[in-house]
Amino acid sequence: MPRRWWKKARKSNHDIFVRGEVGVIANYGFKDGGGEFYVSINTDMCAECADKPCVAACPESVFAVIEDDYEDEVIEMVKEHRKKIKYTCAPCLPTDGRRNAMPCVAACGKGAIKHSW
Ligand code: SF4
Ligand code: SF4
User: Fold this and answer.
1) What spacing in Å lies between the alpha carbon of 108 and ligand 1's midpoint?
2) Which of 16, 19, 44, 63 has the greatest number of C-beta atoms within 10 Å?
3) 54: Cβ below 6 Å to ligand 2?
4) Beta-ladder partners of 65
5) Atom 7 of ligand 1 has which residue's CA nearest to it?
């Protein structure tokens, strides 16, 4: 069954949920003078992902499993990291541009997690 529009179109200035062609995308993060620092999660993919390996893979415990408005289990970013995710993720960011080596991205075989910077 196709999932409907996310009811919380905009929860706050830091959390933006949009319906795109590829599914519901939850963006967590912030922007400042240095740029935009958002982690995007395709929660439609999470709803189909039974084991949710990204949760255990993240050394900073950035992700948590929640039940969304459609009673699907999806991933969200825990509140404490949303306004500092640029710094939380800094130790994981590869210097050679190989984003697939980041623990969360490597654990997610579906390509549901993307970083904006
Ligand atoms: S591993 Fe990927 S698809 Fe599975 S819950 Fe995590 S982000 Fe979603
Ligand atoms: S880049 Fe590292 S700290 Fe950031 S969400 Fe992924 S695994 Fe967690």
Assistant:
1) 5
2) 63
3) no
4) 75
5) 112
Cβ neighbors of 117 (< 8 A, separation 6 or more) are 35, 36, 37, 86
pLDDT tens by residue, 57-86: 999 999 999 998 889 999 999 999 999 999
Distance 94 CA to ligand 2 centre (A): 11
- Strands (DSSP E) contained in 52-102 are 63-67, 73-77
Distance 26 CA to ligand 1 centre (A): 12
Ligand number, closest to the Cα atom of 100: 2
pLDDT at position 15 is: 60
User: Which helix H or strand E contains 46, and what residues bound it?
Assistant: helix 43-47
Number of helical H runs and strand E runs in the chain: 5, 6
pLDDT digits (tens, 9 = 90+) for 13-63: 456 666 666 678 899 999 999 999 999 999 999 999 999 999 999 999 999
Q: How far is the CA of 92 from the centre of ligand 2 (A)?
A: 6
